[in-house]
TrEMBL record:
Pfam families named among the record's database cross-references: Mga, PRD, PTS_EIIA_2
Keyword 4Fe-4S attributed: no
The protein's name in its UniProt record: PRD/PTS system IIA 2 domain protein
Gene Ontology process terms (BP): regulation of DNA-templated transcription
Length: 638
């Protein structure tokens, strides 16, 4: 039984906030409901109390033992555990191993071991290490840096894309070199010392650096230190390197040499820290003019293409320094994982799309690598810049209806501004006891007097604003904003869908063939040219457009369609897409004149398909184009 499938199920349950049926989970993983039930049994067997997954009439839910199930290692003898043990042995034995002896040690047949060696070669593809064979003896050849990258890959594979855990780290490394109990205190001390040096620490990325520091300590302990300088000069590196060496010696009992100090210091400086004012004054790091020019050009282009407010000198400088660090990491192929990549894509698809466009341009100009986790960090920079303007766009206007003393009215208005100022702007105060409700044309009306009839805009509040009043206003504001977004989405979608570009069931042929199939229907209608299909495939290769567990929205970065149109494919269950599976594929072709529609359709369409119940309703009932449109509109209307 596949440990990977079990972990995928566990990850899916952790992303759900309610019960999930076996059928919906089966569609998500591309297996049968019977397989889901067997995975649940296996997951519960990982914990002492058998409580990793709860079962009930409504389906399955992540249980109290989910953390223990995630941290449980592979059972001895499973393919992944055996592969990791074989890799560790090859890394630790520079003279190689005898295939017959290692087969006996692993308690497997020679045929099984030969198959494992094929998998080892697969893991080495694209790297500098290589597997050599001389009759019955195999050895792993590569410089120290390439061998350390393999150790890093083993540890990350143990973590299954989750956060770095000490137990997973120790399974990939040597327990006698790095004591499990020392890892937590070391991390706390490292964060504290970096703060004392004047740096702000990025906790999202520090796990990767901790991994590399631990690997370095283990390799130095067995006499495999790095020699000489490993990266370029940095004024801050010596102080950071000495600090890391001191902590490694204190917590792990290992003395790092100059090469490892410089290597680890540069990893810290390019991955996890942002210099505060004090650190910038002591150790200034200037922006490279060529990098800054490229970043500025891409920011200006993205602002124009997506009609967003990005052009700001301070923002461009921050992103320039980030890109410089990214280029330095690329020299060592030392990528940084981002545990928020999936949630960023599903929650902020438009921001992620802007980041993909910027990353694509920087790749063409500077050779910046297109790693999805690195794109996610660029998205976080973009999101931070857009947050203020997005918040301003979300503010609703409000009228306060409050008969009585002027002092009471002023007190209420100031209370509303203090508690709800990020959501609403009070533009009028009506002091009459019988206002003309129809003339109050603001988004919300906050009334201290009873109102006859029902109007979703009107929220009853007390003259002295209470917590319950604040919650009711927040709920009303959220409801109004969502209703308006979905109304705009409904109007746009009905313009762009066509019965001639609708496929059910969608063949499970892989993302490239599905893009060609759906794109071919739009091309046959004269809406797009063949180059749009190729550009869509190129965009897909940069970063998967599976923005939720159910929906992929492939599209090109260029808006070259004759008119905006969307081709829809609905799977019978699910289809493979990237590293996961989806149930609906919406190939979107946007025209130059529909830039505003791009934002409306893109973000809100993803929002609709992020709700599991809505997805299942649409997928199960969409046996024809008319049925699909009816169900989609019904879901949008709520």
């Amino acid at each position: 039984m596949s440990r990977q499938r079990q972990d995928q199920l566990l990850a899916a349950l952790l992303r759900q906030d309610s019960w999930a049926t076996a059928a919906s989970l089966a569609d998500l993983l591309g297996v049968t409901p019977r397989s889901i039930r067997s995975y649940v049994v296996a997951l519960n067997a990982r914990t002492a109390d058998g409580d990793a997954v709860e079962s009930g009439p409504l389906g399955y839910l992540a249980g109290p033992g989910v953390a223990a199930a995630r941290s449980a290692g592979d059972a001895v003898g499973t393919p992944r555990a055996r592969l990791h043990q074989l890799m560790r042995t090859l890394i630790d034995e520079p003279d190689g191993v005898d295939v017959y002896e290692i087969a006996l040690e692993l308690h497997v047949s020679e045929t099984t071991l030969e198959n494992d060696l094929v998998r080892v070669r697969g893991l080495l593809d694209g790297g500098q290490a290589r597997l050599e064979r001389d009759r019955d003896r195999v050895r792993l050849r590569g410089d120290e840096q390439s061998l350390r990258r393999l150790l890093s890959r083993l540890a990350q594979d143990e973590m299954d894309a989750g956060p770095l855990r000490a137990d997973a780290l120790q399974r990939a490394l040597a327990p006698e070199a790095v004591p499990l109990r020392a890892i937590g205190p070391f991390k706390a001390a490292l964060v504290g010392e970096l703060g004392a040096l004047g740096y702000f620490v990025n906790e999202l990325a520090i796990s990767d650096v901790l991994l590399h520091i631990t690997i370095a300590a283990e390799r130095v302990a067995v006499g495999r230190a790095l020699d000489g300088r490993t990266m370029g000069d940095d004024d801050a590196a010596p102080a950071v390197g000495r600090m890391i060496a001191s902590l490694v010696n204190e917590h792990f009992g290992v003395a790092l040499g100059q090469g490892d100090q410089e290597h680890l210091a540069n990893l810290v400086l390019t991955r996890v820290v942002t210099p505060g004012e004090h650190a910038r004054q002591r150790m200034p790091r200037s922006a490279d003019p060529e990098v800054e020019q490229a970043v500025r050009a891409e920011i200006v282009q993205a602002a124009r293409d997506y009609q967003v407010d990005l052009v700001d000198d301070a923002f461009i400088l921050r992103l320039t320094l980030h890109v410089q660090n990214l280029l330095r990491r690329a020299q060592e192929q030392a990528w940084t994982r981002n545990p928020l990549t999936r949630s960023l894509k599903s929650s902020y698809p438009m921001i992620f799309e802007v980041a993909v466009s910027i990353a694509s341009g920087l790749h063409d100009r500077l050779g910046v690598p297109l790693q999805e986790d690195e794109i996610a960090y660029i998205a976080m920079h973009v999101g931070g810049r857009l947050e203020r303007s997005r918040a301003a766009d979300a503010i609703l206007t409000a009228t306060i209806v409050c008969p009585g003393y002027q002092e009471l009215q002023e007190l209420l208005r100031s209370s509303v501004a203090r508690s709800l100022g990020r959501l609403i702007e009070v533009v009028r105060v009506d002091t009459s006891v019988d206002p003309d409700w129809e003339e109050l044309d603001t988004d919300l009306v906050l009334s201290t007097i009873p109102v006859a009839g029902s109007d979703e805009r009107i929220v009853r509040i007390q003259p002295f604003l209470a917590e319950a009043d604040i919650e009711r206003v927040q709920q009303a504001a959220a409801r109004i904003r969502r209703t308006r977004r979905l109304q705009r989405l409904r109007a746009e979608l009905q313009r762009y869908f066509s019965a001639d570009a609708f496929v059910v069931p969608l063949p499970d042929a892989g993302e490239v063939e599905i893009i060609r199939h759906l794109g071919g229907m739009l091309a046959a209608s004269g809406l797009i040219a063949e180059d749009y299909i190729e550009n869509t495939i190129a965009r897909e290769r940069m970063s998967s457009t599976a923005f939720t567990d159910a929906l992929a929205v492939p599209h090109a970065l260029q808006m070259t369609a004759q008119r905006t149109a969307i081709a829809i494919g609905i799977a019978d269950g699910s289809v493979a897409w990237g590293s996961g599976r989806v149930q609906v594929v919406a190939l979107a072709a946007f025209s130059e004149g529909d830039r505003d529609a791009f934002q409306t359709v893109f973000e809100q369409f993803v929002e609709v398909f992020s709700e599991r119940d809505s997805v299942q309703r649409i997928v199960r009932r969409s046996i024809s184009f008319d049925a699909f449109l009816d169900e989609l509109v019904a879901v949008i209307d709520g």
